[in-house]
Amino acid sequence: MRYLARAADGDPLLGDDDGVVPLPAAAPEHASVRDALPAAAAGALPSVDDATADRTPREQHALGAFLDDPGKLFGIGLNYVEHAGDLSEDAPEEPASFFKPKTAATGPGGPIRLPPESISERVTAEAELAVVIGRTCRNVDVDESRGDSSANQNAPRSGDVEDADDVIAGFAPVIDMTAEDVLQRNPRFLTRSKSFDTFLVLGPYLAVPEAGTDLSETTVRTVVDGETVAENVVGNMEFPPRELVAFHSDVMTLEPGDVISTGTPGAGVIEPGSHVRAAVEGIGAVAADVVR
Fold this sequence. Notes:
- The chain is of the alpha+beta class and about 290 residues long.
- The chain has helices at about 25, 35-40, 80-85, 180-185, 190-195, 240-250, and strands at about 1-5, 10-15, 20, 75, 95-100, 105, 110-115, 125-135, 170-180, 200, 205-210, 220-225, 225-235, 260, 265-270, 275-280, 285-290.
- The protein has two domains: about 1-60, no CATH class; about 75-290, Fumarylacetoacetate hydrolase, domain 2, CATH 3.90.850.10.
- Strands 4, 5, 6, 8, 9, 10, 14 and 15 form an eight-stranded mixed beta sheet that branches.
- Strand 1 (about 1-5) and strand 2 form a beta hairpin.
- The protein is globular.
């Protein structure tokens, strides 16, 4: 597994399980993590062993969000059957997607800033696995060996159909927030309930696995104040990451830096002073404190 990251001062890093190096020391052509996303999608990131600098331990670095300028920010609702049941809702037959603004994004540590109680008295936090787009694409397939999925089998296809693996740069843990009482007043208030500043915490690392890596047994955990309040495995998603990429590429052009948060196994209520952590097995974790 290789990783792309940004130091707190913005310098890009390339790493593996043994440590990190400055990204330009391994790939001088890439001045930023965003620059390296197409190479990550193409499986063309260099080895950390080839860098002109020595590795340093990852824990020695203060890190910001893996992207400081993300593109489109998608959220997916009710993507785990159990979570839909917890909310007394039926799992949708197609991905239930929505947008969050760039101003909602923040980095590791946050803080997550709750809105005034006059606006919302109940905010929840949700751990999610995010998939990050590395190449501009349209009408991609889920997997060349599997053919079209149920989510996109009726969509028009171009003559040169790419596999979703060819356009995914990598995966990252994120924390998504919802002003739940706002949403409960009216489901059309979804955008408002999801869009407060700091309501999306992006992880410190973009994990870049080998193409075709099976994530079905990967566990996603929502942890609040040290207690796991919800967990599930990616294989229990209604629409796995590759299907979500294919589905949305049939709707619009996807571009490097677009982030699709793939849904949560469940949420926990947060208050000022809470500490929230999203832990994605084999991918990484991100945590943030909560203030008002």
